[in-house]
Amino acid sequence: MSLEVRVELGARSYPINIGAGLLERVGEFAMSRLPGKRVLLISDETVDRLYGERALRLFRAAGFDIASASVSAGEGSKSVEQLENLYSAAVRAGLDRKSAIVALGGGVVGDLAGFLAASFLRGVRLVQIPTTLLAMVDSAVGGKTGINLPEGKNLVGAFHQPAFVLCDTDLLKSLPARERAAGLAEVIKYGVIRDPDFFRYLETHLDAIQRGESEALSQIIARSCAIKADVVSADEQEAGERAILNFGHTLAHAIENVAGYGAYLHGEAVGIGMVYAARVSVRERGLSQEEAKRIEDLVRRAGLPTAAPELSWPALREAMGVDKKNAEGKLRFVLAERIGQVAFGCSVSDSVLEEIWHAGCE
Ligand SMILES: NC(=O)c1ccc[n+]([C@@H]2O[C@H](COP(=O)([O-])OP(=O)(O)OC[C@H]3O[C@@H](n4cnc5c(N)ncnc54)[C@H](O)[C@@H]3O)[C@@H](O)[C@H]2O)c1
Ligand SMILES: [Zn+2]
Fold it and tell me: Which of the residues 16, 132, 148, 248 has the least number of beta carbons within 10 Å of its own beta carbon?
């Protein structure tokens, strides 16, 4: 079984294909979507060891002239230094305006290789082959690419849509359980912001998802991509509506920052952030207690944390204040009215924010 989600962006529209074993067909997709035959494959060392040889062989079998480069695994590779190395690799590989960069890896590789593709020769084609659940449902969709600076995350980047995205659910078999749970946080988020039926599907199919059943995985990846694509198509450059994708993220970014990057995976921080946002929503937006509890229960069952009592509120509050997504320094939250319906730009008083944080830590 394979599913297709189309991202509608006029001339830059592209398909996301999702299913078990799809990597085997990458040559076929590449032949139909890429104008040139020269390709540079980028991955990290972990993914390269697992899938690099196979990907090279498949592209070669389809007649592509493919070179490869890999970076160390981890967030540290989203750097100016690594980008510079990759520019050199792209020159050595002889890429021209018709060539393509293929990102085989998690969000780190997708963001880094994506920015390389956005900037090299003022833009070459990009293929995303995400290998983490987070990358399949989030970073490979939407066109945001970028790298970090010592001063902060994602401070340099560009919007650059891929030619196509291929999600092979078999690649998730090697993904550590903790990384898989982190990806599920974003999946749960899509249910909360847009789709009560999808949220219910997650509640009833969580066991199958956690066993790695490809049918259930394909369904949740396809639905997540469709929701993100829908939100992004309506607001490609992030002027308004796209803000709903930040449900749970105002606090999550602060948690990552205060705990020190790496202590919590992004998805783990999002789990805590969503449980918190749900509680704030009960107070401020009339979300029912029952639905707030369903959100909390699903986050917990997914294997994610729901609170971080070791972190100090003043530090978190200060970190939220410097989030680049806050217009005019005012704290704005995405809050739920019910599961499947959220509002963005909600300002909440400091006393409520603090009280609910402490209540959640008990
Ligand atoms: N562009 C966007 O819209 C967007 C959205 C969300 C997140 N992001 C970015 O994504 C990054 C996080 O992505 P991530 O969570 O995928 O992290 P990641 O790319 O670091 O991958 C996590 C770990 O899993 C390993 N791995 C990857 N695939 C594997 C597989 N199939 N089997 C075994 N191990 C595998 C990697 O080597 C790495 O150690 C962050 O830099 C974040 O800023 C971007
Ligand atoms: Zn996120």
Answer: 148
